[in-house]
């Protein structure tokens, strides 16, 4: 559902709706990010109260009109409305699948579980971006690329309703036998924290939780740039739609495949080195995008960008799972994803305003600088959250 938009909507904004200001083009990402961030937060609380599966099914029901709105949209306002629904869909469904896998896997293999979850999602994003690029080059920007979305929404709803089982009791069982770290660092993170306290701990009080939240926000600020502006940068340099589509697909493809390795790697090496190293690699890749002028250079840059994101993305989620108490872990994941997907909003505003004032290259350099600064902040503030000595299945 997300991948069908990564190439087509920026080009649709320019070619069919005549949007020339980059801030105008990025309004669909702002709408998506704002509603997804709010839905992420709601998903954590709702899944603790009503169970994971009802939230998952509700998210897929909301997805059903999205491709139809994009096909029929007579004006840009319809595209914004579709992305409000897409943000609700993504927030409810993806947050819930993250929580469900953390429920099931136990403390010693959270990185592996998050790598599998995020790899499944972003390999699908990459495949769909490539498929929609092919369809757009062959048939035009509408309606054929969005037929895929109709099938995805139906499949998501059918699988969630018929195949998925409830996992909330797994978290309750883990909470009953939960033991804190031997060094006592998490003693204040007990089971009885209320929603306001969970929000405070995850947002700014607890060093690892808050550092992960802010690093996640910068990551999606960067992804908003990659989604909304990089296709326009590549197309503006004269690349054909098929090559722009390939670049749009390479980034999430490397991101998705890489997570099959990096999530499990963080269970062995720890979380912090992968997060810091990944953000530094992202900053380097964005600098290469700004300096590049040809398809081969940009192909290398987006591959490096995907590799850096693969190091960061599942590892941040695993960090939240390491630190949060099982009794309120779903709500902590919701707060983290509130911050992380708020990065789409910040990215749409910051990158759009800079691009309008100073050009696309300046926007890329600005986000590269922010990403590098975030790596320094994580290196300074975050402690290592994964206890590598913990035996499989034992409480951490």
UniProtKB/TrEMBL annotation:
Residues 1-386 form the Major facilitator superfamily (MFS) profile domain. This is MFS transporter. Its main location: membrane. The chain crosses the membrane at residues 20-43, 55-73, 79-100, 112-134, 146-164, 224-242, 297-317, 338-358, 364-383. PROSITE patterns: MFS, SUGAR_TRANSPORT_1. The lineage of its organism: Bacteria, Bacillati, Actinomycetota, Actinomycetes, Pseudonocardiales. It is a multi-pass membrane protein. Gene3D superfamilies: MFS general substrate transporter like domains (1.20.1250.20). Keywords: Cell membrane, Membrane, Transmembrane, Transmembrane helix, Transport. It comes from the Bacteria. It is found in: Cell membrane. InterPro entries: MFS (IPR011701), MFS_dom (IPR020846), MFS_trans_sf (IPR036259), MFS_Transporters (IPR050171), Sugar_transporter_CS (IPR005829).
